[in-house]
Structures are given as structure tokens and as C-alpha cells.
Amino acid sequence: MTANELREKFLKFFEEREHKILPSSSLIPENDPTVLFTTAGMHSLIPFLLGEKHPAGSRLCKIQECLRTDDIEKVGDIAHLTFFEMLGNWSLGDYFKKEAIEWSYEFLTAKDWLNLDKDKLAITCFGNDKQFSRDEESAQIWENLGIAKNRIAFLGKKDNWWGPINDAGPCGPDTEIFYWVGESKAPEVFDPQNNNWVEIWNNVFMTYNKTKEGNFELLQQKNVDTGMGLERTLAVINHLPSVFETELFLPLIKQLELISKKKYENYPREFRIIADHLKAAIFLLSEKLEPSNVERGYVLRRLIRRAVRFGRLLEIKEIFSFKMLAPVIEIYGNVYPLIKENKDFIEEQLVKEEEKFSKTLLKGMNILEKIVENQKSFSGKQAFDLYQSYGFPLELIKEIIKEKDIRFDEKEFEEEFKKHQELSRTASSGMFKGGLTTHSEKAIKYHTATHLLHRALRDVLGEEVEQRGSNINEERLRFDYSCSKKPTAEQLKKIEEIVNEKIQENLSVIKKEMSLKEAKELGAIGLFEDKYGERVSVYFIGGEENNLKTAYSKEICGGPHVINTNVLGYFKIIKEEAVSSGVRRIKAILE
Ligand code: SER
Predict the structure, then answer these.
(1) What is the total count of domains within the chain?
(2) 590 - beta bridge partners?
(3) Are residues 495 and 543 in the same domain?
(4) Could you say which residues of the chain have pLDDT below 50?
(5) Which of 511, 561, 510, 513 lies closest to 533 in space, CA to CA?
(6) Among positive and negative, which fits the CA dihedral 576, 579, 584, 589?
(7) Is 509 helix (H, G, I), strand (E, B) or coil?
(8) Which residues pair with 205 in a beta bridge?
């Protein structure tokens, strides 16, 4: 069966049972800044689960593209994915447990529908906890359909309760359907811990609203919310060993074999991670999300970077991520047209991100390799230095260390991290008089951004530009500078672009104590020289410990500053104006 046949069958089955078909919502939820991505079909239906009338009625179904990263570590096995499609049906105060379960069973096992083997099914139902009783009703419905008692397990809230998506909202007990994918005969007794039992469908009985205070209130109506994994179901229907052998992945796997000149069967985990992550990244890019260091953009960045790193483990030396776009278009172009429409943007972003990351990776890896060559453990301080000096993502440091099977003290790293933050704050408190009015984290970010702005102003308007004053609070930075002419809109745009580029480059911020003479020799800017003592501290942005001269920004300053530009966010100039003759002022924010 093809993916399209499965999608169509599902919708037809529920349409015949009076469900209205809804279109898939976007991966980036519209009008909901509180969640990063659409993780389930029910996101867009929350108001209707809570009781509002849905214009299409009380029985709905759809195919929803979803993105989840909570199980990112499990990607690489036979079933876990970050991007997947979910087939779902909903009852908004209409039918309840009996119909929902009976229809799930019929769709999965009836000859005209999926015709799956009844003897390979197993079920979990909600077991009791302090507050809610065991879901005997669902278990009885399953038994009436012929599922043996031994194949029904009762599990707690962690496994058999779904929602709310955030802290509050609709939720309820669920019953999950598993299918045996092992080569041997399905065991008579169901053990949910055995990975050969793969969950394919979840039926949630949304009956409660969890309040912000943590209480569960009964909803005014009883709802059903189901979600079946398209890739997993397709794999079991076609007797395939994993989701990666389905038509929704094969073209990606084949392309990767061509690029890497290696065989999937020899490196299944690496191939699967790369295929999954780049597919997910391409879907996010198709909605015009850009990689960045915050929130949604950061997840996108992490997906691309993790895929690229696994590519390097397969010894792919060239920029390759963009080559996975063609197979994704081949698989999904007709179902999700945005991928085709925005293909130039997607390609451009993949190339840009991979190039940027390749540089970081090369530098960091060389150092990391050297460190681990001669030792069996890796100290938290060493990890911290790598993070600080090269903007090397902590998740990757941890992953590489795990692969090499050497000891690493994560707690020590975190302590080191905290210590550094505190040190840079206490060491500088009272020293910095250049306009920092508070020492909150936001203000510290603005302070580092001010250094970048100062440097970028000189890049664009000329070296004669000098700082005339600076003032920072938690809402914005204000920077006064000498300049005889009003900068043009293009020049301001260019300045903004440079600062953002530097932020994106994950530049480390390094502080060094030295004599004023040394600071000058290194080319540090120091504007109030007569005020400085013999020893000064200089902040370098973008330099390397042993070659600080090449740093992008060098400024005599008391601090405090962030450790790496990657925490700054997006820099935006909101105002440029004259303050007096020859002195101009910029106000800017970090978003
Ligand atoms: N919301 C449930 C899930 O995502 C059922 O759709 O599993």
C-alpha cells in the first residue's frame, strides 16, 4: 500500500462515518506563540474540545504534519521520528469510547481496510492513580472485540494520559494500540517494554481541563482525539523492518548512499538520523522559518547541525544537506506544495547553515580530539572552554564524549558555567560606568550588542566614528556616536545585518587583563584612555585564545558581557537621530 492510498483510505473510512475532512494545519502554529510547533492534530482544535462549536460539526478527521523533538535521542531506531504525519479523527461531544475503539479496530483489521493481523495487536489502557480510576470500560470494549486479557496492559499517567499541550488545557486518559513487528510469533503476554511492540495509534478520551493551578475539571462535553502514525502504520502494513524502508524515506536513504558512497545497512543509525532531521528541517524551512539561536529557529538549527555532524561521521566532506531537498520534493511535493514553492529559499538556508557550522565543527573537533586522545575523562572545565571559545553546542560535546566512551562530569560543567557568569558579574560590578544601569541578563546582552554595534558602525561609516556615550536598560540600548552626516537607510540596514551576522556566528567573548600598551598594540578601542589605569581589561569578540588580534571586536571595557554572541537574539535598530552637531544616536533592541 502506498502512503497516498493509506491517507485516502483513512479519510474515506471516517467520511463514511459522517466525519468532515479538515486540512492539515501548519507546522508552526498560527496565532499561538506559546508552543513551538504543532505536535499533534488536536492543537488547532483546543477551543472546540473545550466546548466551542466547530463550524464543520462534531465529527472531524484530518492528516496533520507534526514535529516533536522530545524523543530526538531515540531517532535512529525502527520507529521514532521528529517529523511525522498523524492521521486523526475527533468527536467533539459526539461519540465516545465504544465507537472510537470499535472503529479503530475495524479500520486496522477489516479486509476492506488495512487487513492487519488481529493476533499481532496489543493494547494499553489507563491504570488507576491517586485521583482517577482505572479505565475498565475501554478494556472491556477491547475484550468484547476479541483482544485477549493478556494482551491488555494498564499503565499510569506517564504512559496512558494525554495532554495538556502546555501547562493547562484539555487532556484525558487514553488507550494505545500496539503492533508486533518482531520476526518471531507475537508473544501471548503483552510486555510494553519490548521494543518489538510498536505503538501505532492512540485514542484519547479528552474529558478534563487541567487548570493553571493544576486542578482537573470535568469538561462540559466528552471528546475523542485520536492519532495514528502514518509512517509506522505504512511500515507494518507492508511488512517492512522500519519506517525508513517505507516510500516516505527510501528516496532519502538512496540519495544518502550516493552522497556518502556508503551502504545504509552498515550505518543504519547515522542514515536514519540524517534522513529524519533533514526532512524535518526542510519542512520547517518550507514555512519560511530561519535557523537562529532562539526558540523555533534554534530547534531548526539543531536539526540541521546534528544531521551535518552525522554526515561528517559518514565521512561526507562536502556540503551535502541541500542535496536531500530533491528526494523530499519527490516524496511530498504533491501533498505539501510549499516545499516546491519555496525550494530556492530552503536550499539557500541549508547551504548557509551547513557552511557556517562546518567551520565551527572543524575547529572544535580538532581541539576535542586532541584532548580526548590522551585522557580517559573530560572535565567540565574543558567542555566549558570548548563551548566558550568555539561556540561548540553543548549537546554535541556531550554526544561526542558519549560516543568515545569517556567520562564527563556534566555537573562540573554546569557549575563552571554558573561560576563564570557570577565571576564576570561580580568582577565588573561597579567598574563599568559606561551606561549600564542594571545588571540583569537582558542588560548584559545589550552591553555585548553595543560592542558589536560600535564595531559595525566603523565598518560601514568609517574608522573616524567614535563613541560619545552609551546607556542601557532592560528594554533597549542607546548609543551616541560622532558622525558628520546622517547615515542612509542602506547604511543602517547594513550595520544591522553585520551585527546579526556576528550574533549568528556563535562568536565567543573573551576577557583578558593586560597593560594599556598591549591593548593598544592588539588594536583595542579605548576611548577614555586617561581614565584607565596601567592594567586594563579588554573584551574580544570572535577571537581565538592564542590569536586575539584577529578578533572582530576589541574594546577596553570593564564588562560584564555574555560568554558567546549566540544568546543575543535578533538585533534591530529602532531609531536613528541627531542629538547635537556632529553627534548622532542609535536606539536598538534585541528580539
Ligand atoms: N493527541 C494524541 C497524540 O498525539 C492523539 O492524537 O497522541
Answers:
(1) 3
(2) 571
(3) yes
(4) 423-438, 528, 530-532
(5) 513
(6) negative
(7) strand
(8) 224
Question: DSSP 3-state assignment of 411?
Answer: helix
Pocket test for ligand 1, best of 65, 204, 207 (most atoms within 8 A of CB): 204
Q: Could you tell me if 588 and 573 are in contact, meaning their C-beta atoms sit under 8 angstroms apart? A: yes
Residue 421 cell numbers, joined: 557568569
Query: Which among 174, 175, 176, 230 is the best mutation to test ligand 1's pocket, defined by most ligand atoms within 8 Å of the CB?
Result: 174
Determine phi and psi for 127, rounding to 5 degrees.
-90, 170
The distance from CA 232 to its chain's CA centroid, rounded to whole angstroms, is 22
Helix axes 343-373 and 380-390, enclosed angle (nearest 10): 140
Q: Is residue 329 part of a domain?
A: yes
Q: Is residue 529 part of a domain?
A: yes
Is 464 exposed, middle or buried (CB count within 10 Å of its CB: 0-12, 13-18, 19+)?
exposed
Starting at the earlier edge strand, list the strands of the sheet with 583-590.
467-472, 477-482, 583-590, 571-580
- Ligand 1 atom with the smallest distance to the CA of 204 is 5
pLDDT of residue 238: 97
Residue ending a domain, among 431, 449, 467, is 431
Number of other residues whose CB lies within 10 A of the CB of residue 282: 29
The whole-number pLDDT of residue 245 equals 98
Cα angle for residues 134, 140, 145 (degrees, 5° grid): 145
450 with 411, same domain? no
410 and 510 belong to one structural domain:
no
Q: pLDDT tens across 304-323, in order?
A: 999 998 998 899 999 999 99
**447 and 546 belong to one structural domain:** yes
> Does residue 255 sit in helix, strand or coil?
helix
pLDDT digits (tens, 9 = 90+) for 121-146: 999 999 988 899 999 999 999 999 99
The residue whose CA has the least distance to atom 6 of ligand 1 is 227
* Ligand 1 centroid from CA 40, angstroms: 6
Strands 197-210 and 216-229: antiparallel
Closest CA to 68 of 283, 250, 274: 283
C-alpha cell at 98: 465504544
Ligand 1, atom 4: closest residue by C-alpha: 40
Q: Which domain holds residue 458?
A: 440-590
**Mutate which of 63, 162, 199 for ligand 1 pocket (most atoms within 8 A of beta carbon):** 162
What is the model's pLDDT at position 528?
47
How does strand 161-162 pair with strand 169-180?
antiparallel
**Rounded to two decimals, what is the model's pTM?**
0.71
CA end-to-end span of the chain, whole Å?
A: 47
DSSP strands (E only) in 42-163: 59-67, 83-92, 121-126, 152-155, 161-162
Burial class (CB in 10 A: 0-12, 13-18, 19+), 115: exposed
Is the alpha carbon torsion for 167, 170, 172, 175 positive or negative?
A: negative
Tell me, what amino acid is at 236?
V
b/e per residue 331-355 (b: at least 16 CB within 10 A): bbeeebebbeebbeebbebbebbbe
Nearest to 141 by CA among 60, 203, 220, 61: 203
3-state secondary structure of 179: strand
Pocket of ligand 1 (CB under 6 A): 40-42, 88, 162, 202, 204, 225-227
